[in-house]
Amino acid sequence: MIENPKAPSELRFDPVSKDWVVIATGRARRPETFRAELRNGERKQWKEAQKQCPFDELSDQECPTYALLQGREVELPKGSICVPEKWTTISLPNKYPAFTPRSSFTTKIIGPYQSADAAGFHEVIVTKDHTKDIPQFSTEQVKELIDVYHARYESLKDKDFVNHISIFKNKGPKAGATIAHPHSQLIAIPVTDHDVVGSLEGSLRYFEQTKKCIHCTMLAWDRKDKQRIVYENDRFVVVCPFASRVAFETRIYPKKHLAYFERTSESEREDLADALLAAMKKLYKGLKDPDYNYFLHTAPADQGNYDHYHWHWEILPKTSTWAGFELGSGIEISTIEPEKAAEFLRKQ
Q1: Which of 132, 228, 239, 295 has the fewest CB atoms within 10 Å, i.e. the most exposed one?
Q2: Average pLDDT over the chain, rounded to whole?
Q3: pLDDT of residue 13
Q4: What pTM does this model have?
Q5: pLDDT, tens only, 15-51
Q6: pLDDT at 79
Q7: What is the domain range of residue 230?
Q8: Do the Cβ atoms of 231 and 346 come closer than 8 Å?
Q9: 145 and 219 inside one domain
Q10: Between 33 and 54, whose confidence is greater?
């Protein structure tokens, strides 16, 4: 395993909340840069950052890990020029990674605290066109993007010190993106994020009490009730969840009970592409191209048994900003009923 010497990030454990955080020294900035960012404003910085796009020309990027050209795998060149001449979706090591490959994994106790190596992998998944994003894609292009997610997940899930793989997309400055060119990220890490842990624990409690999957139970009710259904095809349902955290929160579930995203078949990924495209088009049209985050929730890659779980995608449009109540209480405020949000999106 090749270690990356430039980014010795560190995991730190909060003994009260039981959450892990990353101190990403590989992305370190001087304290005064935060003050400048607050003064100048995010939108101005966003426009300045787009004058030279790092993904329009990949000669300065790390050697890619995987590439597709219109659905077909591309053989990666070897040598000094390692980017293929033609590609439509490509996965690259992040130049400023939060997690980096390590040959060992160590933890330290520091008084009441605990830290650990930020061992893992951090990749950026880029689609070719600078101006077109998922709402402008064909179903085949969305399927290609999902296929790259799937291929990289499969490649990394059995690596040393990888117990959890997060796949996510930040679109726009309000969602934390710093580059306008459409791209997603994949981070493979030694710990499971606390949001997934909470979801796993809640699913397990319900299963132990009822011998049923809580997500299957919710989906059965929602498909019968129909108020919160946005879209569905043969294998997937797009729904605004009953307890939506933000306005127009949307989730995509497989109808069949499946715990592991990596076990999806070719045909299942085709239907997932159709559902994701439908959801993104409706949000794009209805909310006039909002900034958003989306991410995958799936069973961890730590060899455990999570058959009680039900994998899904979550899409969170940036329709509001957390303020004092949300930050202090952890209780989020959504300003529209999910039933009305779903009804609005169905019409788009």
Answers
A1: 132
A2: 88
A3: 79
A4: 0.90
A5: 656 667 776 665 555 544 545 554 455 666 666 666 6
A6: 77
A7: 195-346
A8: yes
A9: no
A10: 54
| Nearby residues of 41 by Cβ (< 8 Å), 6 or more positions away | none
Residue ending a domain, among 192, 218, 235, is 192
Round to whole Å and give the CA distance between 226 and 247: 18
CB contact at 8 A, 113 and 19: no
Q: pLDDT (tens digit, 9 = 90+) per residue, 280-328?
A: 999 999 999 999 999 999 999 999 999 999 999 999 999 877 777 776 7
Please count the structural domains in the chain: 2
Are residues 30 and 104 located together in one domain of the fold? yes
